[in-house]
Amino acid sequence: MNHNEPILGELESLLEFYQAAGVDACLTENPLDWFEESARQTTKRLQHGHNPPRETAEHAERPPSRQPSGSSVMPVGAAPSVQGPATGHTATIPDAAVVESARDAAAKAQNLETLCSILEEFEGCNLKLSAKNLVFADGVPNARLMLVGEAPGRDEDLQGKPFVGRSGQLLDRMLHAIGLDRTNVYIANVVPWRPPGNRTPTPQETEICKPFIKRQIELANPDMLVFLGAASAKTLLGVQDGIRKMRGRWMTYDLNGRTIPCVATYHPAYLLRSPLEKRLSWRDFLSIRSKLHKQDNEHI
Fold first, then answer.
1. Domain range summary for the chain, segments of one domain joined by +
2. By C-alpha distance, which of 268, 258, 262, 270 is closest to 287?
3. Which residues, at least 6 apart from 220, have a Cβ–Cβ distance to it below 8 Å?
4. Which pLDDT value is given to residue 292?
5. Cβ distance 90 to 204 under 8 Å?
6. What pLDDT does 49 receive?
7. Are strands 258-265 and 224-228 parallel, antiparallel or unpaired?
8. Which CATH class is domain 99-299?
């Protein structure tokens, strides 16, 4: 009798659970002593003639404290960047300086192709370290209708396109029901990299990515915006209402001084979990179709 079989069976079950939960990336294989790393980075900057901030210098003068085994919590005064676990890129502390660098980078894009290239080179968002692909957009850039979600999932990360998994297939059917498809809409996400395990992006990650999606909307220049879920609406409109209170209510988005109509509806992934809510999303999409037809009549 093989006494290892129960252990192997438990490990297989655990791996199946992680896979079903969407976990497919290991961020660190070994614990990292951030105090020691901070002191090393400070010494490196001093060797190159850079004067560190006072807090960092004082921290370097103290003997480095040891974190408990297996801990990877970053303390105050840690180094601004460390080597990424598997990609060779560096991890970045998501501070105000990184947000400002995102704004500067996004502002330089004169078209959507350039914006995509800038995002591919941007190193300020740590989600890039674990994501397989940049998920920039799908559809046609000059479409009248632009749909914005929160962040890509596993299928989107693998293919590099937004809304291509089960929720994307449902979205395609919803669009088709009102006479639209990906040849006459433009689709993007606030966050263009998949968070590990499909977790919710942190407020810092969203803030870093916000300048890019705002510039993407400016360059796409749609006549109407549809927010898929409350997260994208809250990020871009600054509202705090939940999706149940917000959905179906027409609002406006400021686009370079031009206000365009926008509406929030349930995210397709939520509808897969709560199919009874599809009737409300159907009302929202009928309202979107009516709004598009009204705009057509006004332009005649």
1. 99-299
2. 262
3. 112, 137, 141, 142, 143, 146, 186, 188
4. 95
5. no
6. 60
7. parallel
8. alpha beta
